[in-house]
Design goal:
heterodimer; A: seven-stranded mixed β-sheet; disordered N terminus; B: alpha+beta
């Protein structure tokens, strides 16, 4: 085995101790952070869109295709057994990562979007009837709005929106008031991609369950920043994406309570999701395979485990504390800028800072920052109704990850001064 | 910074801050919306066309500096031109912002020349052309919303 492969087998960050936060070692694990952009040092602050990948994840993908590639759950040959074992080990790793009760409750999908659509199309089409209601919050990503609209349209049900205050926090009194016997499901984000607001998911679930409603949590922005325990949250469904937690694109997870998943009809039909097929009758496979039709993203699943091992190696609590410090620092520095207004000032926030600059459209900010090597997202962040709520066409959004630094927040502020220089 | 000054030329900054013909038109012969869902640029272009002549052009809406300045320059450039001339100006502008400048004369470009820097920023071409696409739809009598996605 090569030296690299040995390294790749140790998924922990290259730092052995975790006190203090080993930022230099962590940064060294992400090869892309060493590159330049537009002739400047890359300052990557678009982590809510997607995160960069550590060498441990990249190496794992290479090793899979170099040494282990085969189809899963099919062959009796050596490589197929090896790939199947690695694939199923990863399922166990995900189960432990989110503290699910059973591996069967972990379904691999293409991402959060597919996971939410799966629930809408199977659980939803079976259980939602005319006149029923689905509650969502006013700070949801389009992926936690549109699948429910599609379902509601088909079933003559309705999607109702729990409002937020001017800080971007869910109005819990309103939420409680809106819960009624027609509410079959509450679908909320764990953390908002556009504002950073962390929703009080545990309380939301408690109230929903007391009302007899189920809860789906869109965890795309939760998993990268927070220690997630689906049993503690008592969520019925929890969806997240690999690529937002330092893993590959094209792989995501749906956690679902076993009894619910058992009762749901399959979604896509094909190989792997069946036990036997004849032209007269097809018998579906058991969980979790019932929901994993076709050859899955095997490399993605295996590398997702490496990503989860990587963040676990640092520790979600350490990451959350580090990112909190970074966000507070960045927020303070940004507030020094004349004419800058923060959008989303919730007390509980993930490492996302959304802002507008007086007299300058976010798109122009994005272009000028890009010339300085600073990558942020500008636009509506796939949350158009939310932009309307705050009466802005778009915002600039800096989103931080476990490898960002105070110096990078300073670079953002310096680049914003360049914007002002051009426009004033 | 030099590339940025090339993109955000004084004419663009000026038209962004003080857009010309920036108002509704009550007696317009057509009114067309243009929308860029990626960045949220959203304009309505009003036209008063008399036979073959574009008598008046105005616009309302919001968006980035490039899209707003472009709408402003478009409105003052096209005003008083024939349909055919307006169509040719669209072609000229499009060639300018996509970097195909061969044979374009400074005289023909006029104030549109300020958008020469856009070709270095491919992501911004759709901002610069949004109002022009909207204009074309209006001239062709199509009133569906234009998007530059």
């Amino acid at each position: 085995m090569t030296k690299n492969a040995v390294l790749a087998e140790d998924p922990r960050p290259s730092a052995l101790g975790t006190q203090p936060y080993p930022i230099e070692r962590i940064r060294a694990d992400f090869p892309i952070l060493a590159r330049s952009a537009r002739g400047k040092r890359l300052v990557y602050l678009d982590n809510a869109a997607t995160t960069q990948k550590p060498r441990q994840v990249i190496d794992r993908i290479v090793r899979y295709y170099t040494e282990e590639n085969s189809n899963v759950h099919r062959g009796v040959h050596y490589l197929s057994e090896l790939a199947t074992m690695e694939y199923e080990n990863a399922r166990g790793a995900v189960q432990r990562f989110v503290n699910a009760a059973d591996e069967k409750e972990i379904i691999f999908t293409r991402g959060t979007t597919e996971a939410i659509n799966l629930v809408a199309q199977t659980w939803g089409r079976t259980n939602v009837r005319e006149g029923d209601e689905i509650l969502i919050s006013a700070i949801e990503h389009h992926s936690n709005i549109v699948p429910w609209q599609m379902l509601a349209q088909e079933k003559s049900a309705s999607v109702r929106v729990v409002p937020v205050n001017d800080a971007g926090e869910l109005l819990m009194d309103e939420y409680e008031r809106m819960l009624n016997p027609r509410v079959k499901l509450v679908a909320v984000g764990h953390a908002s991609n556009a504002l950073g607001t962390i929703n009080p998911v545990k309380r939301i679930v408690e109230l929903a369950h007391a009302n007899g409603s189920l809860v789906l949590v869109d965890g795309a922005q939760g998993v990268p920043h927070l220690h997630v325990d689906v049993r503690d949250l008592d969520a019925d469904f929890y969806a997240f994406s690999g690529h937002k937690v330092y893993g590959p694109t094209g792989i995501g997870v749906l956690y679902g309570r076993q009894a619910l998943l058992e009762a749901m009809p399959p979604w896509q039909g094909g190989g792997d999701m069946i036990l036997s097929v004849s032209y007269e009758k097809t018998t579906y496979n058991a969980l979790p395979y019932k929901f994993e039709a076709g050859t899955p993203n095997i490399a993605g699943v295996i590398a997702l485990q490496s990503a989860l091992d990587y963040v676990s190696g640092i520790g979600l609590d350490a990451i959350a504390a580090y990112e909190h410090d970074l966000r507070v620092y960045a927020t303070e520095r940004l507030q020094e800028i004349d004419g800058l207004r923060l959008i989303g000032t919730a007390r509980e926030k993930a490492a996302v800072v959304s802002f507008v600059l007086e007299g300058v459209h976010p798109h122009d900010i994005g272009t000028i920052l890009d010339q300085e090597g600073v990558a942020i997202r500008t636009g509506h962040h796939c949350a158009q109704p939310l932009m309307m709520r705050f009466n802005v066409p778009a915002t600039g959004r800096a989103s931080f990850g476990l490898y960002n630094t105070r110096e990078e927040a300073d670079a953002l502020v310096a680049a914003l001064h360049k914007v002002i220089e051009v426009f004033r | 910074m030099s590339d940025l000054r090339e993109l955000y030329q004084q004419v663009i900054l000026d038209h962004n801050k003080n857009p010309r013909n920036f108002h509704e038109m009550s007696d317009a012969t057509s009114r067309v919306e243009g929308y860029n869902p990626l960045c949220g640029d959203h304009y309505t272009v009003f036209l008063k066309v008399d036979g073959e002549t574009v008598r008046e052009v105005s616009f309302t809406g919001n968006g980035c500096a490039i899209s707003k300045a472009s709408a402003s320059v478009m409105s003052s450039t096209v005003k008083g031109k024939s349909r055919e001339e307006a169509e040719r100006l669209f072609e000229t502008f499009h060639r300018l912002v996509t970097g195909d400048e061969s044979g374009l004369s400074t005289a023909e470009l006029g104030r549109m020349a300020a958008f020469s820097g856009v070709s270095e920023f491919p992501a911004r071409v759709k901002c610069a052309t949004l109002a022009w696409h909207t204009l074309r739809n209006g001239l062709e009598g199509r009133d569906e919303k234009v998007t530059t996605e």
